[in-house]
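agent: user wants the structure for Precorrin-6A synthase (Deacetylating) from Gordonia rubripertincta. delegating to structure tool.
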Amino acid sequence: MRKLLVIGIGPGDPRQVTIEAIDAMNSVDAFFVLDKAPERGLAVKHSLVGLRQEICERYIDGDYRFVEVPDPPRDRNPDDYRAEVRRWHDARADLIEAALATELADDGVGGILVWGDPALYDSTLRIVDTIIDRGRIELEHTVIPGVTSFSSLTAAHKILLNRIGEPIHITTGRRLDETPDGASANQVVMLDADCTFLQTAAPTDQIWWGAYLGLDNEILIEGTVGEVGETIRETRAAARERHGWIMDIYLLRR
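agent: tool returned. relaying tokens verbatim.
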């Protein structure tokens, strides 16, 4: 039976890859890479795939190969967001299933390297479940956790994620204005391309923002929203333009 290892590799710093992940990577015959890079240009593709390759070259002793799977297109502003995401995930499942069937031997071990942790705002496990539920190929999978982006954020800023007795709310920029009453004390916000905090937060709210965490081009900004909010927006836009991609996250504290 084919085996698939879904391996969390942290936000990008090779030093944050766990020993469990390294052991798993050394058992993989082929890594399947599904990136958003094709829609963003060749330089971005080389950068994102290159980060994965750097981690593999650093820690793997044996032979392995990369199988690149082109990411299907996605409507970024659909009328029905959930329906579009489900369609996109199904299309991804089609492509990965086909690649597993043609590129991996019946007794082979495949690997998917996931930024951060596979359980936190990543679609890989949903796609793997879809492939297994279809039953067209026999597949056994294992999940290896990774360092999360918010643990890297708090470490970089040398702060605690919450104050004594306060809850932590993890959300996205798209849902930031829907944070329920009582959950806004400490909000960890991901996938906020529009810097939604500029519309939802008070000028006195504290924000700790980070991009490219753990990489050579890491950027950190902290302060009140009134003091640094526009700086974050401008810095984020400039960084995305410069690199062609950006991975960022922030902690917003009421």
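agent: one observation worth passing along. The longest helix spans residues 81-103.
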